[in-house]
């Protein structure tokens, strides 16, 4: 996922999309399979319960946290009665039920995390696209200290009773506005160079923002963002010896190895040849366009965020770029093309875009996705237009969370 407007994030950073209805009810259940979204499926008296902090095959005691839906409830594990061999003690003291909503797989061994993610990708491809895929998520180090772009929430207590107004910095609990203070060690997955909790509190005390963003670029000092002006600062990122300028508040992959891995996978799949024509769609600041242009291809990129396009033109002067939503720019694309890199937002490209791209006759398409359900839906649509998935790779670019990144190769059937 390489668009500036759709950076993958942990759930602690995500907006609360549905209100929770907490209860005090406790139920004992046997945990079923993992599901898309970081939880496992259990049943109690015929009702589905989506359980966080559980593992398949475990017997657990669950506190129901949301019973507002008729078809299902949500719950958190409060006691493990029979543990899975993959269960480990979370390395962060604020992980787990009632804690930070971000690292939802800290209770799982590294191998277990990859198996769970592989099962989710396998199930989504099978269920939504009818594609049989041998489950394998490739390990990517490091498992901690990898997140180069982190958002911290800030709460500013009132002084109605004459108390201190010292702000508190932390992460939001899952599906909640409740703030969980950072542990003394700071965020476990934040990259080296991220300010300490004390330093973040000092930053918060100097401003009025309810959020602090920290960017640790490949080159240069970390950037702390609390204002629009700070977000406009340019940072330097690298991939394959190619430098990229990115706004501090713009999008770049959060794992320090992600850009190299995804570009490498896409280029290996496409086998680009100098002189061919190529499209880099949802191109952000031109990551894939740079790799394609460096190999001598004639490249056009499309991105809807104008400020990202302006940087892409500087980053990859050999390529041409269009600033527009892709669905509105389809008529501006060439009538035929040799290869395509497609890296849509979390919701996927959609039927209109897929149908048009399939008509361009590309010999190979590399589809990059951070959501396996969206990937599967679009692969199904490509299949309806004469393209098949010849290869699919998955990478553990978000360790300790349920997120996973995939790259698929599509060729004419």
From TrEMBL:
The keyword Transferase applies. InterPro entries: MeTrfase_TrmA_CS, NA-bd_OB-fold, SAM-dependent_MTases_sf, TRAM_dom, U5_MeTrfase_fam. This is 23S rRNA (Uracil-5-)-methyltransferase RumA. PROSITE patterns: SAM_MT_RNA_M5U, TRAM, TRMA_2. S-adenosyl-L-methionine binds at residues 253, 282, 303, 343. It holds the Pfam family TRAM. Keywords: Methyltransferase, S-adenosyl-L-methionine, Transferase. Its EC number is 2.1.1.-. Gene3D superfamilies: Nucleic acid-binding proteins, Vaccinia Virus protein VP39. GO terms for biological process: rRNA base methylation. The keyword S-adenosyl-L-methionine applies. The active site is at 370 (nucleophile). GO terms for molecular function: rRNA (uridine-C5-)-methyltransferase activity. Residues 20-79 form the TRAM domain. Belongs to the class I-like SAM-binding methyltransferase superfamily. RNA M5U methyltransferase family.
């Amino acid at each position: 996922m390489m668009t500036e407007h759709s950076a993958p994030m942990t759930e602690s950073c995500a907006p609360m999309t549905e209100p929770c209805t907490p209860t005090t009810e406790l139920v004992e259940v046997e945990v079923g399979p993992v599901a898309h979204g970081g939880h496992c499926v259990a049943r109690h008296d015929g009702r589905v319960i989506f359980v966080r902090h559980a593992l398949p095959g475990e017997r657990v005691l669950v506190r129901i946290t949301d019973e507002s839906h008729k078809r299902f409830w949500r719950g958190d594990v409060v006691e493990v009665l029979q543990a899975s061999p993959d269960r480990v003690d979370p390395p962060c003291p604020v992980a787990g039920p009632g804690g930070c909503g971000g690292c939802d797989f800290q209770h799982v061994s590294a191998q277990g995390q990859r198996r769970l993610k592989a099962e989710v990708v396998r199930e989504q491809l099978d269920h939504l696209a009818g594609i049989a895929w041998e489950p394998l998520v490739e390990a990517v180090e490091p498992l901690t200290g990898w997140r180069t772009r982190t958002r911290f929430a800030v709460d500013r207590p009132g002084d109605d009773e004459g108390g201190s107004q010292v702000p508190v910095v932390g992460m939001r609990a899952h599906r909640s506005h409740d703030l969980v203070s950072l542990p003394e060690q700071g965020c476990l997955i934040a990259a080296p160079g991220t300010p300490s909790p004390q330093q973040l509190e000092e930053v918060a005390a100097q401003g009025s923002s309810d959020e602090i963003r920290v960017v640790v670029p490949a080159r240069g000092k970390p950037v702390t963002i609390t204002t629009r002006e700070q977000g406009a600062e340019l940072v330097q990122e690298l991939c394959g010896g190619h430098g990229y300028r990115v706004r501090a508040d713009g999008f770049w992959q959060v794992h320090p190895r992600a850009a190299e891995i995804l570009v490498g996978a896409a280029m290996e799949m496409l086998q680009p040849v100098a002189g061919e024509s190529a499209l880099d769609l949802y191109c952000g600041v031109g990551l894939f366009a740079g790799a394609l242009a460096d190999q001598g291809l004639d490249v056009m990129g499309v991105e809807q965020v104008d400020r990202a396009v302006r940087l892409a033109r500087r980053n990859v002067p050999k390529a041409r770029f269009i600033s527009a939503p892709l669905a509105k720019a389809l008529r501006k694309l060439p009538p035929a093309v040799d290869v395509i890199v497609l890296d849509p937002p979390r919701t996927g490209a959609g039927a209109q875009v897929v149908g048009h791209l399939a008509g361009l006759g590309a010999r190979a398409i590399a589809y990059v996705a951070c959501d396996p359900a969206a990937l599967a839906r679009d692969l199904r649509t490509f299949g309806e237009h004469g393209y098949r998935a010849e290869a699919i790779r998955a990478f553990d670019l978000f360790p300790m969370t349920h997120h996973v990144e995939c790259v698929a190769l599509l060729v004419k059937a």
